[in-house]
Design brief:
Shape: globular
Helix content: 40-55%
Distance between the termini: 13 Å
Strand content: under 5%
Number of strands: 8
Number of helices: 17
Oligomer: single chain
Structural class: mainly alpha
CATH topology: Glycosyltransferase
CATH architecture: Alpha/alpha barrel
Strand order of the largest sheet: 1-2
Order of helices and strands: HEHHEHHHHHHHHEHHEEEHHHEEH
Number of domains: 1
Bound molecules: (2R)-2,3-dihydroxypropanoic acid
CATH class: Mainly Alpha
Radius of gyration: 20 Å
Length: 420
């Protein structure tokens, strides 16, 4: 059974492989996505180490001069997706979006390096990628943490990757819906509209895109000009973990300056994470940087915080919080006890394997092996039941969203490797 699952996962990674990059899934997402690619590389390294490095190298080949790594690279035109390159209007040699995504690259690089069979090739590839990933981290703290608090803000829900999370409902209400150019969605042609974000959310996504475009995508101006600035614990935990991993990697290949710099970011970020802790919810919460208030939404972003080295007692509380969800499959992206929970709508309830993978990894490191093992077992059971979907109903296990999903397949290879 395990062998069949492994073969099926590899097939999906190959079907979605476009040579130098992998699409998340045919139709719904026909380009290269930032964090998808970095996590995909972890799956690829189980059967083609060289190809895994290429996935990340291709992404960083489109890094902006300021250091930002965009969330989408539009390698080839495809009318099946909206908003395409003309809407973004970022004026890049190869068109890209103008916002970023969770910084998993540092973590992925370290994992690829530690596992590499071909150490000489891995060292050469790491040496070339290290300064690029470090420039991205530097860009984050310079442009998204202007007051130097140690935590960065996202300026668009798509940056967190959790597009329609309940986390954004309140701060997003501040973003206008009027004045945007007429548009036609394409995502609802590929997936059930009742499992996707609403029209009102799309209006706001686009308002922000047009607003940033009016600033000529000057990333040094976007933070202060944005009506949406949210400090997300999940997003910050990924960045902090990547800074810590990049620091270790830099030290391993003898780059002490980059190691020191990234160690500083990680230490400052970890200390600042404490300001997002909620004892009442037993997890971290987002902070709306415009109001300065924590957002009362106990979503999976605050559980994903366990991906960085949070104190062990916090990890234990988070493990208990996951148990408290009481869902058949862990980890729901929003707790069913909250009235805003929706078992089938994208990030408002469904389970996502990538998030499960990072939570399980963090909890295992923090000594919460039992919960980590349950998350891993639930994840594989979902695949047995429903195939390699984009996301899953946490109550019934129903497969939802796009099918033959690349990062789901990559995570299956990771979970299987840990199991064996
Ligand atoms: C989408 O188009 O649904 C994406 O999540 C934006 O990156």
């Amino acid at each position: 059974m395990t062998d069949a699952l492994r073969t099926a996962a590899i097939d999906i990674l190959k079907i979605n492989d476009r040579g130098q990059y992998t699409v998340p899934t045919k139709g719904l997402y026909p380009f290269q996505w930032n964090w998808d690619s970095c996590l995909t590389a972890l799956g690829q390294c189980h059967f083609d180490e060289a190809r895994a490095w290429t996935e990340i190298e291709t992404l960083f080949g489109h890094q902006w001069p300021c250091g930002m790594v965009p969330h989408i690279i539009f390698h080839q035109m495809d009318d099946g997706y909206f908003p395409g390159p003309l809407v973004w209007g970022t004026n890049r040699p190869v068109p890209t979006s103008g916002i970023t995504q969770p910084a998993v690259a540092g973590f992925a690089l370290k994992r690829l390096f530690d596992r590499a069979q071909d150490q000489a090739a891995a060292t050469a590839r790491v040496r070339a990628l290290l300064p690029k990933v470090a420039a991205w981290h530097r860009w984050f703290y310079a442009t998204r943490d202007p007051q130097g608090e140690g935590l960065v803000a996202i300026l668009h829900p798509w940056e967190a990757g959790r597009d329609n999370s309940v986390d954004w409902d309140d701060p997003f209400a501040r973003v206008p819906t009027e004045g945007i150019a007429p548009y036609t969605r394409r995502d609802t042609l590929h997936a059930d509209p009742s499992h996707r974000p609403t029209k009102e959310q799309y209006d706001r996504y686009l308002w922000l895109v047009e607003h940033f475009r009016s600033l000529d995508w000057d990333t040094s101006k976007m933070h202060d000009a944005s009506p949406f600035q949210v400090v997300d614990p999940g997003f910050n935990a990924i960045l902090i973990r990547s800074c810590a991993d990049l620091a270790d990697l830099a030290a391993q290949v003898g780059d002490d300056a980059l190691a020191d710099e990234n160690r500083r970011y990680a230490a400052r970020g970890l200390a600042a994470m404490e300001s997002l802790w909620s004892d009442g919810h037993g997890q971290y919460l987002c902070r709306d940087r415009i109001t300065g208030q924590l957002i009362d939404s106990p979503s999976v972003g605050g559980i994903l915080a366990a991906f960085c080295a949070i104190p062990p007692e916090r990890a234990a509380r988070i493990a208990a919080t996951i148990d408290g969800h009481g869902t058949r499959y862990t980890v729901a992206s929003h707790p069913p006890q909250d009235a805003r929970f929706d078992a089938k709508r994208y990030w408002r309830g469904p389970v996502w394997l990538v998030v499960n993978y990072m939570i399980a990894d963090g909890l295992a490191r923090a000594g919460q092996g039992r919960t980590a093992a349950r998350i891993s077992a639930d994840s594989l059971e979902l695949i047995h039941k429903g195939g390699f979907a984009e996301y899953y109903d946490p109550m019934t296990g129903e497969a939802l969203g796009g099918g033959q999903f690349t990062w789901t397949a990559a995570m299956v290879l990771e979970f299987l490797a840990h199991d064996s």
